Amino acid sequence: MINNDVLRRVRFALRINDGNAIDIFKLVDYDMDKDYLQSIMKKDEEAGFLPCRDKTLAMFLDGLVIQRRGKKEGALPNKLKAGEKLSNNDILRKLRIAMSYRDEDMIEILRYANFRIGKTELSALFRKADHRNYKDAGDQIVRNLLQGMVRKYRPEAAKDSTSKKTYSKLQSLPAENNKPTNKQAPRMHYSQKTEKQVAPNTPVNHDIWGKPKPKK
After folding, report:
1. Where is the composition biased (Polar residues) (predicted)?
2. Which of 1, 41, 25, 39 is nearest to 166 (CA)?
3. pLDDT tens digits in sequence order for the chain, 216 residues long
4. 212 - beta bridge partners?
5. How many CA atoms lie within 13 A of 213 on its CB side?
6. Domain residues of the chain, as ranges?
7. Which of 1, 39, 95, 157 has the highest CB neighbour count under 10 A?
8. Does the global pTM surpass 0.90?
């Protein structure tokens, strides 16, 4: 899953238009150029597409943490150094902090995408890399978390979340709709949702690290 897709889906799920995105980058002392921002929001087959660098996505997610959780006094922006990569585990961790997700919240969000995971499997993704129970996160769990966020926060447009039409809708959103509020993303348990609100997909027969499940 490329960084452009992650940026695009996070922005859509949380109703973040260009102006708000630029403000988020400013929170980590980065002046994002609007033309460049629009280029990394394009799909790779579109004219003017530019790849979103790991450093750029990391700054956006760090800015999102500050916007939603506040900035620690005296803390400096922790930007990726040259050669450093942003892993899927890092993306999950930053989203978890920004959204104040507990284990139960992440499991619930993933259920919106018909993706099942246990607490033990989930906790392995947030261990330190040198921990014996640490596991690398695959593209699948990142993709399903973002899909679950779209289905929870934008159920009216979940099927169109990565299309060009959707991005044009995003640009027309008023700024006040982009502020993180409890009303915008009410907490509800999955068992309270109806089938109409969460359209089920066919379950995928592999685990979160992309390995096929053995046939019984």
Report:
1. 164-184
2. 41
3. 899 999 999 999 999 999 999 999 999 999 999 999 999 999 999 999 999 999 999 999 999 999 999 987 766 667 888 888 999 999 999 999 999 999 999 999 999 999 999 999 999 999 988 899 899 999 999 999 999 999 999 988 755 544 445 445 555 454 444 444 444 444 443 333 333 344 444 444 444 444 444 554
4. 206
5. 8
6. 3-175
7. 95
8. no
Coil, strand or helix at 212: strand
Which own/partner contact pairs does 98-101 have at CB distance under 8 Å and 24+ positions apart? 98/61, 98/64, 98/65, 98/67, 98/68, 98/69, 99/68, 99/149, 100/68, 100/69
Q: Count how many Cα atoms sit within 13 Å of the Cα of residue 175 in the half-sphere of its side chain.
A: 7
Q: Token pair 């993933």 is at which residue? A: 110
Cα dihedral 199→181→60→49 (10° resolution): 50
Using DSSP, state whether 206 is helix, strand or coil.
strand
Place of tokens 């929001």: 41
Under 8 Å between Cβ of 51 and 3:
yes
Bridge partners of residue 206, in order along the sequence? 212
Give the three-class secondary structure for 63: helix
- Which residues contact residue 191 at a Cβ distance below 8 angstroms, ignoring those fewer than 6 apart? none
